[in-house]
Amino acid sequence: GQNIDQPTEMTATEGAIVQINCTYQTSGFNGLFWYQQHAGEAPTFLSYNVLDGLEEKGRFSSFLSRSKGYSYLLLKELQMKDSASYLCAALDSNYQLIWGAGTKLIIKP
Amino acid sequence: GAGVSQSPRYKVAKRGQDVALRCDPISGHVSLFWYQQALGQGPEFLTYFQNEAQLDKSGLPSDRFFAERPEGSVSTLKIQRTQQEDSAVYLCASSLGDGQILTDTQYFGPGTRLTVL
User: Fold this and answer.
1) Which of the four, B1, B32, B52, B59, has the lowest number of CB atoms within 10 Å?
2) Which residue in B105, B112, B113, B115 has the most chain A C-beta atoms within 10 A of its own C-beta, making it the best mutation to test that interface?
3) Dihedral (C-alpha) B9, B7, B105, B34: value to the nearest 10 degrees?
4) Is A23 within 8 Å of chain B by CB?
5) Which chain B residues are closer than 8 Å to A41 by Cβ?
6) What DSSP character marks residue A38?
7) Facing A102 at nearest CB: one of B42, B106, B109
């Protein structure tokens, strides 16, 4: 079966760094997306990785290891507005997105 | 506003009532997706259109759910004889659909929160 695993909830301090992990098992693989979703709002695109390695985009970076079926999202210099759910989604061989349940990130002052 | 829009934003229905949820995708986007999202969960795929063609409806939970996109732009998700378990947020997303994965990034609408009493 197809499965995406990520922690349910994480807590971090304003100004700190946090890493949100995601492991995936899919029928085929065409890349890994990270989306941010604030409560009551739509998911918004953060990053896409298809090759192994780290992609950096400002305060956010995303890493992929295809051989390990593993990705992480790294958030630096945390701000209160980063409090949200972070959704990991893998694109399978049919180009269908398989979603994780999301990681709720709580930022404390 | 060039984003995906959905209406209504909130819908309360009595059990057994029919509902229709509307999605206006980003202009020019070929692909359109419907998802169901329960509280605290990730989106669950319902159905997918490329232009007016419904290419995948494997995620529709029952024959009470029906989606259409007759002119390849606006789409409607209809739920007949609503049940309490249909209560969820229904998200619509669109993508350019030109075959390039990064530009196939899905852009989501704000969702319709359906509550069935």
Assistant:
1) B1
2) B105
3) 90
4) no
5) 110
6) -
7) B42
Per CB-CB distance under 8 Å, the chain B contacts of A87 are 42-43
H/E/C letters for each residue in chain B?
CCCCEEECCEEEECCCCCEEEEEECCCCCCEEEEEEECCCCCCEEEEEEECCEEEECCCCCCCCEEEECCCCCCEEEEECCCCHHHCEEEEEEEECCCCCCHHHCCEECCCEEEEEC
B105: nearest CB among A41, A45, A50: A45
**pLDDT tens column, A1-47:** 789 999 999 999 999 999 999 999 998 888 999 999 998 888 999 99
pLDDT digits (tens, 9 = 90+) for A57-108: 899 999 999 999 999 999 999 999 999 999 999 988 877 889 999 999 999 9
